[in-house]
Design brief:
This protein is an alpha/beta fold. About 30% of the residues lie in helices and about 25% in strands. The strands form three sheets. Strands 1, 2, 8, 9, 10, 11, 17 and 18 form an eight-stranded mixed sheet that branches. It has an eight-stranded mixed sheet with strand order 5-6-4-13-14-15-12-16.
Length: about 425
């Protein structure tokens, strides 16, 4: 079933009785060529690209709950490619290009909105850093421009330009960045993978990973054992726990990142805007809600909820930068479990166990990486060679210290990234 304007019109005129389920609900088979642990954005995208680009369709995606019920449904929906360091820069550029064609490729409306992102700076040092970053982005082949204070005021007059503590001196803008509907991204990739023969198995928690003579041979699940030639982890904040089933200890910590949305308001924020002080980021959804967040909660946790001190800090930062919205009512909040690496950059690599692959450590970059992650991870699984856009995401950089990508220059402390 393909979607089109004509199909929507026809169904509307005939009582919407012709729509079919987006994907099947199959029983797990006893064996697959590839088993992917995790039915979030990265796992579903990986399954789609395995089938679409590499012709590997004997694939199962195992999800302990429902598809898209993890971090892909618990984020602030920002899409961008404004990274600085070699390795990250090439990868997120690759991912943004896939975002721009994803809806056509999937025949699914993910509500991709390239409204642009503005990273504000508040002092001379931050301005210099923004200029360096902008030059790096342009050299990579993506778009970036430095905005003066006056230009920022034209684009976002609602900001507090009279804040003496954090004066707005300008911003770094990437016009091709924006937002996308997180649930629709998961649904689109799920539908695309299912159409190509992939089994999407929900309510199927993995309880063990079977390894024989240094090689993975399958997994144990709540719905019985499943043998597999290759097993791929895509469990986001639970990556450390899942890897431990195979006897691996990964260099990641899991932390809570809270996000918030206000009541629906008339259009005011046209772009995604981030503040260098307080690490605040905001955008306005298509329903009118202000979607925003700030720092991690700074303690390791697997709970998808946060603490009140970080709520208070985030609200203080929000009101300081956008005082006009101080009386807006908070509609809801949520927490995502972030798998943080010591250098703030992801891991996409073979594991020390033959046939077991790793995709984890996304820190703040998980949602915006969804199509890129699926693309390069599928390439690694299918060919056993790293994709050209992900050659720096090696696991052994944390053992050797060579090739670390500290994007923010904050050192080796997980929760500072």
């Amino acid at each position: 079933m393909r979607f089109s304007g004509w199909r929507v019109l026809r169904e509307g005129l005939t009582g919407n009785k012709g729509w079919k389920p987006h994907w099947r609900d199959p029983e797990p088979k006893s064996e697959y060529d590839v088993v992917i642990i995790g039915g979030g954005g990265h796992g579903l995208a990986t399954a789609y690209y395995l089938a679409q680009e590499h012709g590997i369709t004997n694939v199962a995606v195992l999800e302990k709950g429902y598809l898209g019920g993890g971090n892909v449904g618990r984020n602030t929906t920002i899409v961008r490619a404004n990274y600085y360091l070699p390795g990250n820069s090439e990868f997120y550029s690759h991912s943004l290009k896939l975002w721009e064609t994803m809806e056509q490729d999937l025949n699914y409306n993910a509500m991709m909105s390239q409204r642009g992102i503005i990273n504000l700076f508040h002092n001379d040092g931050q301005r210099d850093s923004a200029v360096r970053r902008g030059n790096s982005i342009v050299n990579q082949g993506d778009d970036a421009e430095i905005l003066s204070r006056e230009r920022v005021r034209e684009l976002a007059p609602f900001l507090n330009f009279e804040n003496n503590r954090f004066p707005i001196m300008g911003g770094l803008m990437q016009r091709r960045a924006g937002t996308a509907r997180h649930d629709a991204v998961a649904w689109g990739y799920a539908r695309g993978a299912d159409m190509r023969g992939v089994d999407l198995i929900q309510n199927c928690e993995v309880t063990g990973i079977d390894v024989e003579n240094g090689k993975v041979v399958g997994v144990q699940t709540a719905r019985g054992p499943i043998r597999a030639k290759k097993v791929a982890l895509a469990a986001a904040g639970r990556s450390g726990q899942v890897a431990a089933m195979a006897g691996l200890t990964l260099p990641i910590e899991s932390h809570v990142l809270q996000a918030f949305v206000s009541e629906g308001l008339k259009p005011i924020v046209d772009h995604v805007i981030t503040f260098a002080e307080g690490h605040l980021y905001i955008s306005q959804s298509d329903k009118g809600g202000m979607v925003f967040g700030s720092y991690l909660d700074f303690y390791s946790s697997y709970a998808a909820r946060g603490n009140l001190p970080m709520v208070e800090h985030t609200m203080e930062s929000f009101v300081a930068m956008v005082p006009a919205l101080s009386k807006a009512r908070l509609l809801r909040s949520w927490g995502g479990i972030m798998d943080m690496t010591p250098d703030g950059s992801p891991i996409i690599d073979h594991s020390p166990i033959d046939g077991l692959y790793l995709n984890c450590g996304w820190c703040y970059g998980g949602f915006k990486a969804t199509p890129g992650s699926g693309s390069v991870y599928a390439h690694l699984i299918a060919t056993d060679r790293p994709h050209g856009a992900a050659t720096k995401f090696k696991l052994d950089r944390f053992r050797s210290g060579v090739g670390l990508m500290d994007e923010e220059g904050t050192g080796a402390q997980h929760n500072l990234h």
